[in-house]
């Protein structure tokens, strides 16, 4: 029998600039309060978000100098490249491997444009082989880390023994826009942070956990829930529908459907590892999945320490679960643009 795909190791990284939530609230007040009549009411999100600090690829004052699209994308290429290298090296070192051992790279991002893509730009610095397979994936947003994990695991299964490196890297803070006087933009200014997470996957007999199954569910007519708008100044966040009530009403049937395709039920899951999009989203997930209040403790801790980093955030949660001891079966989940739920089931190694 061929070996099943295992998660062999993980690594994470954040950029050097700390964004304290109190400083972000003060800067946003100075930028928006005199120009946006409803700012004081919306500004409560800085306190209710559950976030203490975040990290950015640029210092806080840079975001409030109205940089245009070229400057923002240059910051993405530089900052995301550095995060890629740091997270990838951390994961490879934890696996006892080096970049020359990597056969396939899956790079997930949605917060900037790079052609050639990020893994090509850092290839020489990393030391990847010239015959490495490159799989850049764009546009999955907050679901990208989990969906990328699924893609990487299937690639590992297709070539047993090969080393597949997944890197999810985002610079969400580059979407801070003082020129956009919208509720969505102010909420984004209170939530978003930057970071990267990397995983090594391989069809082998050793690893942290076995990848059991994966699946997605996309709801029809939901393109307006989350995404980017594009204009000469850069990317602008779209939150046209409230995500917490949508999650509360819709995630449980979708999870049940995804699990059912593999002959599993919600009762088979010992721990849900969820993307913490915000404090209200975490509350909604606990309600929808019939979890005890406070069950998603690692999610709240990651949100508090890093904010919403989009695609890597669920992998940061998984990393904390691994550190505290994985239960028998974990379901990694995240929702993102589409509007889509992505799931991966992991069975802890004996």
Assembly status: single chain
| Major sheet characteristics | 9 strands, mixed
Give the percentage of residues in beta strands: 25-35%
Strand order of the largest sheet: 5-4-6-7-1-8-13-12-11
Q: Give me the strand/helix succession.
A: EEHHHEHHEHHEHEHEEEEHEHHHEE
Class by SSE composition:
alpha+beta
- Rg, Cα atoms, Å: 19 Å
* Residue share in helix: 25-40%
User: What low-confidence regions span 5 or more consecutive residues with pLDDT below 50?
Assistant: none
Number of strands: 13
- Ends apart, CA distance between termini: 18 Å
Task: Tell me the number of helical segments per DSSP (H or I, 4 or more residues long).
Answer: 13
Q: Summarize model confidence as the mean pLDDT.
A: 92
Shape verdict? globular
Question: Can you characterise this structure?
Answer:
The chain is of the alpha+beta class. It is 38% helix and 25% strand. A nine-stranded mixed sheet has the order 5-4-6-7-1-8-13-12-11. A two-stranded antiparallel sheet has the order 2-3. The radius of gyration is 19 Å and the shape is globular. The relative contact order is 0.19.
